[in-house]
Amino acid sequence: MDNSILIVEDDPIISQLISWRLQKHGYHVSGAAQTAEEALLHIERNPPGLILIDINLPGKMDGTELARQVRARFKIPFIYLTGYSDEGTVSRVLDTDPAGFLLKPFKDEELKVAIELALKKAKKE
């Protein structure tokens, strides 16, 4: 399985920071998308091994809808990165069977562990 990572984050500064943090840990960032629609185009053209998805995205689809499509169409593992942990958000997230969930702001070590667990789980499936 490909170990490249796609970042789906609507804030370009946060996206760049995440990219830098991933590269610092030796991961290959295959790209970044600011909307779910943009992410789907990227996935169709260049499927990554893992996707980091912000839940609140602009456009017709939010991160949970993107996750549903990724699960159904591509079977690529994904980790949610979000600032929200309210009951409604957690309920929506659980229905999509994510490989992980990280609350922003997160530490580099937390991101690295979540990615390693998700990639290891994906290799077993």
Quick overview:
This protein is α/β, with parallel strands linked by helices and 125 residues long. It is built from 5 helices and 5 strands.
Task: Describe the fold and architecture.
The protein is an alpha/beta fold and 125 residues long. It is 48% helix and 18% strand.
Helix percentage range: 40-55%
Assembly state here? Answer: single chain
CATH topology call: Rossmann fold
What's the CATH class, please?
Alpha Beta
Shape assignment: globular
What share of residues are in beta strands? 15-25%
- How many DSSP-defined strands? 5
Q: Count of helices?
A: 5
> What's the number of domains?
1
Distance between the termini: 11 Å
Give the biggest sheet. Answer: 5 strands, parallel
Label this structure with key terms.
5 helices; globular; Rossmann fold; alpha/beta; single chain; 125 residues; five-stranded parallel beta sheet; 18% strand
